[in-house]
Amino acid sequence: MNFAKNKLIRILQNAHAGELAAARAYNGHWKSVRDPKQKEEIRRIELEELDHRERVRGWLSKLGSAPRPAREKVFGAIGSALGVLCHVSGWFLPMYFAGRLESQNTEEYKEAAAYAKELGLDECVADLLDMSAVELEHEEYFRSVIAGHFLLRPAKVFFRWS
Ligand SMILES: [Fe+2]
Ligand SMILES: [Fe+2]
């Protein structure tokens, strides 16, 4: 019981900081792309990451815990740096790495949901699975945006995340 609770708290703390990094990176990302439709789509994803952050913080507090300030600082800084990098790295790389990261987030929320289930926290399970589904949508969005890109053809094996 305690093991599951500790695991859940740790995953949620990591996710909370990860969502900050993602939101900041996407903020730089949508500002760096030229296509107005892509700008709008990535901006929406940024807002969804911030929404996840709120929800994760709520569950942490219900579990009697809180985000870890040091981790928030580090990941906040990573996100800001990635956001700036988007302006110089070209179009492909931010789209590609975003897709890969989203794929990890999908799994992270699923794993958290499994621990919440063990703890009998049904509402939490549903919320975490919903967030996992949204991360999957994000992953599919980035996958669809880069599909057919010339860099994916010669390097098919390297530039695949699943
Ligand atoms: Fe998210
Ligand atoms: Fe996401």
Question: Could you explain how this protein is built, in words?
Answer:
- With 162 residues, the chain is mainly α.
- It has one domain: Ferritin, core subunit, four-helix bundle (Ferritin), CATH 1.20.1260.
- The chain is 78% helix and 0% strand.
- α1 packs antiparallel against α2, α1 (2-32) runs antiparallel to α4 and α4 (92-118) runs antiparallel to α5 (122-146).
- The mean pLDDT is 93.
- Bound molecules: fe (ii) ion (2 copies).
Nearest-angstrom radius of gyration? Answer: 16 Å
Helix count, DSSP H or I runs of 4 or more residues: 5
Q: Tell me how many strands there are.
A: 0
Query: How are helices and strands ordered from N to C?
Result: HHHHH
Relative helix content: over 70%
Key structural traits:
Ferritin; 5 helices; mainly alpha; 162 residues; binds fe (ii) ion
Topology:
Blueprint: H1 2-32, H2 36-62, H3 69-85, H4 92-118, H5 122-146
Helix pairs in contact: 1-2, 1-3, 1-4, 2-5, 4-5
Bound molecules: fe (ii) ion (2 copies).
One fe (ii) ion binds at residues 19, 22, 49, 52, 105, 135.
